[in-house]
UniProtKB/TrEMBL annotation:
<feature type="domain" description="Solute-binding protein family 3/N-terminal">
    <location>
        <begin position="70"/>
        <end position="312"/>
    </location>
</feature>
<dbReference type="Pfam" id="PF00497">
    <property type="entry name" value="SBP_bac_3"/>
</dbReference>
<dbReference type="InterPro" id="IPR001638">
    <property type="entry name" value="Solute-binding_3/MltF_N"/>
</dbReference>
<protein>
    <submittedName>
        <fullName>ABC transporter substrate-binding protein</fullName>
    </submittedName>
</protein>
<feature type="signal peptide">
    <location>
        <begin position="1"/>
        <end position="35"/>
    </location>
</feature>
<keyword id="KW-0732">Signal</keyword>
Amino acid sequence: MTASTTRRSAAGRRHTALAATAAAAASLLLLSACGDQTDAAIAKREAQKNRNVNAPLFKKLPKAVQDKGFLQVGSDITYKPVEFRTNGKVVGIDPDLAAAMEKELGIKLNFNNATFDTLMGGLKSKRYDISMSAMTDTKERQQGIDSSTGKKIGEGVDFVDYLNVGVSLYTQKGKTQGIDGWETLCGKTIAVQRGTVSHDLAKDKSKKCESNDAEAIAIEAFDNDSEAQTRLRTGGVDAVSSDYPVAAYAVKVSGGGKDFQMVGGAPLKAAPYGIAVPKSQKQLRDALQAALENTIKNGSYAKVLKKWDVKDAAVEEVKINGG
């Protein structure tokens, strides 16, 4: 190989290296211009874009939340009319109330779908900042106690209470099979959503049946209320129990109102829904309480409840741990 050939080869290598460096630089510039396109990054950019430092309660938020510009909200988005999806969009009572609170706080509340029985764990692992998911404020949840076993499973949460609801029963329309309340469920089969107050109530009532020498209630627990409704619609169970707003909505809309009927009279165990906040986040808890209080004062709270036909569930006072 001649010297000139060697020089040409070296020059070629330098040219190739320079071209590769230029290409890499161009790629970096392109990525920088486009930004991270992951869902989390997009949500963060949208939150920053919508952040309003002049909102009435922005300065009441913890500094870390102010800087972030959003809260990750854990929610079971299958619970009509409290939260559900329509054409991919999260809608319902909770999302509408959250939107009203956003205007007071100046940040975004991002709803993340999960099964109900995993929400408390998601708060513990910090996957979610808060949970807003038709969650009943109970002493057990406040203390981090599993209601089924009585065992301590976490530090518990504080609740910011925002609706007052009870538990209802419904059956197939025209096929009540004599069910007119919980006392007539002995020996029958009921569907519930796993980990809910309805689930706990069904267990308690079943034990009462057995203590009275009657047949136990057969309980089928599902990941979400929609599955429980499907089970009833197809005749697989005799009744479903769920929170009153959910039961009333199902009776009203399923099959154009022809699938189900409410039984058992007034809802049982009236108790508040609460926004669950880790006990370590008292400043955030208090900011959320103030935001809800503002929505009541400015009328947006009443508008949401009227829209979803749950005016009777309104609270007069936003309490902390009122359950």
